[in-house]
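Example record

One chain of 126 residues, shown exactly as stored in the release files.
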Amino acid sequence: MIDNNRAISGFSVSDINKAREFYGNKLQLKVMDGVMGLLELHVGNGNPIIIYPKENHQPATFTVLNFPVENIEETVDQLSAKGITFERYEGFNHDSKGIARSDEGPSIAWFKDPSGNILSIIQPTD
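Predicted structure tokens for this chain:
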């Protein structure tokens, strides 16, 4: 039977070294080298997220990782200072910083890793 406490998520990148630099240095997350050339992204207390190189990588057309933050404006400013640009998607009301705001849900800002995978920071509503 599948042990639901042991699931591991993963996604591909086109360049593992650029991914290591981006996730480890720009986002300042804990990144460890794994077996077979994989990277392990350690967030929270759960299982690591696996990042693996793929020669014919195609970025996902959906958000692969969402990071809850306490202050989205401060986090956008910090990431922008590191050269990260924020995406704007049709159908969302973005402010001047690229933060999508809605009365129906959390504030969210999307950005991409060097391989084009979509990530987001989210400030949960109270």
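Notes: The CA atoms of residues 14 and 56 lie 7 Å apart.
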